[in-house]
Amino acid sequence: MVKLTINGKEHSVDVRPDTPLLWVLRDHLGLTGTKFGCGMAQCGACTVHLNGEAVRSCVTLVSRAAGQKVTTIEGLSKDNSHPLQRAWLEDDVLQCGYCQSGQIMSAAVLLRDHPNPSDSDIDQAMSGNICRCGTYQRIRNAIHKAAKLQKEGGVK
Ligand code: FES
Ligand code: FES
After folding, report:
1. Structural domain boundaries of the chain?
2. Which pLDDT belongs to residue 46?
3. In the CATH scheme, what is the homologous superfamily, with its name and number, of domain 2-74?
4. Which Pfam families match (predicted)?
5. Closest-approaching ligand to the CA atom of 43
6. Residue 153 confidence (pLDDT)
7. Cα 14 to middle of ligand 1, angstroms
């Protein structure tokens, strides 16, 4: 059994310690907002937070997350009220949507560490998140919008 705290809830899962965290989230806990893309830390679709830092859950062993705090897209806010989620919806950023939970989880770390990011801060922080639909410009604009919302007190 591996014990994990995910989105503030404790879980015990009966898996081998070398199981990727992504499999546990999706297949054992039904948290399917986190996506499987490349499976080799190249696309960012599987990004979640481990103790507040963005990690690729496809290459993070569940044993590394044992006893730690994991946050997935489902736990970013209770009601889609995180400034990034609000900005994403207002700007209609998604196309197919497949990459977007990973994009938002990476952007959340960026905004926490750089509340007023420049274009180059954004490009650097988001460079590991690939979007096959090419929504990069809309993502960048939405991050700027979210920074404004956050400044106005939009974090709930
Ligand atoms: S699925 Fe993990 S980085 Fe692509
Ligand atoms: S919105 Fe389709 S891959 Fe990014």
Report:
1. 2-74, 83-151
2. 98
3. Beta-grasp domain (3.10.20.30)
4. Fer2, Fer2_2
5. 1
6. 79
7. 23
Ligand 1 atom with the shortest distance to the CA of 128 = 3
Strands in the chain per DSSP E: 2-6, 9-13, 47-50, 53-56, 69-71
Is the domain defined by 83-151 classed in CATH 1.10.357.10?
A: no
- Taking the centre of ligand 1 as the mean of its atom positions, its distance from the CA of residue 2, in whole angstroms, is 22
C-alpha distance across the termini of the chain, in Å: 34
pLDDT in tens, the chain (156 residues): 999 999 999 999 999 999 999 999 999 999 999 999 999 999 999 999 999 999 999 999 999 999 999 999 999 999 999 999 999 999 999 999 999 999 999 999 999 999 999 999 999 999 999 999 999 999 999 999 999 999 997 444
d(CA 24, ligand 2 centre) in Å? 23
As for ligand 2, residues whose beta carbon falls within 6 Å of it are 94-100, 131-133, 135
